[in-house]
Amino acid sequence: METAGADLPKPSTILLGAEATETRFKELPLEQYQVLHLALHGYVDPIYPDRSALVFAPEKNGPNDGLLQVREIRRMRLSASLVTLSACDTGVGPVGAAGINNLVTAFIDGGARSVVSTLWELEDHSTTRLMTNFYANLKTESKAQALRDAQIELLRAGFSPYFWASFELVGDPDNLVFEGSNTPSSPHVAQGLGILQQTGRRPL
Question: Which CATH class is domain 2-196?
Answer without folding.
Answer: alpha beta
